[in-house]
Amino acid sequence: MGWLKRLFGLEKPQNAQVNPAPQTIQQQPSAPAATQQIAPERMGLNGEYDQSGLAKRVALAFDQDNQLDDIDTLWVAQTGSTVVLKGKVPSQDILNKMVSVARSVNGAAAVDTSQVTIG
User: Fold this and answer.
1) What is the value of pTM for the model shown?
2) What pLDDT is attached to residue 4?
3) What pLDDT score was predicted for residue 76?
4) Do 71 and 46 touch, CB atoms closer than 8 A?
5) Rounded to whole angstroms, how far apart are CA atoms 46 and 74?
């Protein structure tokens, strides 16, 4: 089972991307010219607004890496623009790889591994 399915109950959307182009959102329907970009940490798998967008895109990035696609003892969350990893990983090398992959996702300002154990 992949990361997206296990963590969010989602099958991988057809056009899902780790770093999609952002869509613009309208501020108010009465003012069509008032638009703004979606914050990178709130961007979903297809560039839409998603409160958990960063965590979902990190999960997608983990799914796309053959070394990371079968670790089912770790969870991904987010607090603002910080990716939070929780759980257990088999080795420090795997954790280092996960941190590197998570940092490569647009909108990830930091990766918190304080809730991860190795072993």
Assistant:
1) 0.86
2) 87
3) 97
4) no
5) 24
Average pLDDT in the chain: 88
| Token pair of 42 as six digits | 């709130």
Pairing mode of beta strands 82-89, 110-118: parallel
Q: Which has more pLDDT, 53 or 30?
A: 53
Q: What is the distance between the alpha carbons of residues 104 and 76, in angstroms, rounded to a whole number?
A: 15
Q: Of 45, 41, 90, 43, whose CA–CA distance to 68 is shortest?
A: 90
Spell out a b/e string for 80-115, using b for 16 or more CB atoms within 10 Å of the CB, else e: eeebbbeeebeeeeebebbbebbeebebbeebbbee
Please tell me what DSSP assigns to residue 106. T
Report residue 12 as tokens. Answer: 């991988």
